[in-house]
Specification:
- This protein is an all-alpha fold.
- The chain contains three helices and no strands.
- Helix 1 packs across helix 2.
Length: 84
Amino acid sequence: MNKAAYALKLPRSLKAAAQRLAREDGVSLNLWITVALAEKVGAVETTADFFKMRAGGAKPADLLPFLDKVGDAPPRPDDEMPDR
C-alpha cells in the first residue's frame, strides 16, 4: 500500500476528542483518524452509488408531470424561500 503524508490542522477540541476516542479504542490517533476517514469515504461513495442506481436513466424532463401537479398557488407564509 502506498502512503501519503498530509499535515492535518484540527481545532484543539476536535483533536482532543479524537485522541480520547483513539485511546479508548487502544489505537494510535493516526490509525483512528485513518479509519474514521475511510468510514466517511465509504459512506459518501455508497450513498452516491445508491442515488445513481435509483435515478437510473431518469432525465430532468421526467419530473415535469410531478411539477405540473403543484399548481399556481403562492407559498404559505411559513413555507417561503428565505431572502438572500
